[in-house]
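call fold(seq) -> tokens
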Amino acid sequence: MKTSNKDLLIEGAKTFGIHLDEKAVESFNLYLQALLKWNQKINLTAIRSEKGIVLKHFLDSLSAHLYLPKHSSILDIGSGAGFPGIPLKIIRPTSEMTLIDSVRKKVDFQRHIIRMLGLKGMETIHGRVQDKEICQSLGGRFDVILSRAFSDLQTLLVLSFPFLKEGGRVIAMKGEVESNEIRLLTETKGPRYRLRETAHLTLPFSAFKRTILLFEKE
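ret:
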């Protein structure tokens, strides 16, 4: 990681109340270099530059940090190249983190990163949350469901419900969301959630808008 991008990562993390020590910075650097290398052969991300990955993947992932309970069990649905689960695991090593994705090559990459960084209390699963076997094995196990991958909030909430403990939360990380969309969502009949918080933010050192929606299972 070039010095300027390293500074962007460190200073950007501070805006979310995160201090990155040398070990964490090195972990992010190893993650970045592996992602660039693997991305030459398989399509892990459309973002190809170091700076783009730091801003739009690493810092974007870390923006969810403020909404996670301490020592929580977390399921990252549709985690792709490991976002946001792996960056959050790097800074929250005591959290139990499970990643699930339907693309085998992306899961292989996640497992490579987990081994390379020596991340403990973390597993990755190839499959879909709709799969009966996965639902049976992971049902009711998690404090938090995370996702950057779902465009349809209602589908995310429906699919997340069986995996959450009572009082668990869903954190949906999206781009700009119209207030009307949020209102319609809360009026739709389905699994019982309460919208606890809506946060609008701009990622550090960019114009990228992000909305974080926090739902609590009733």
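The beta strands are 73-77, 96-101, 122-126, 142-147, 164-174, 193-202, 209-217.
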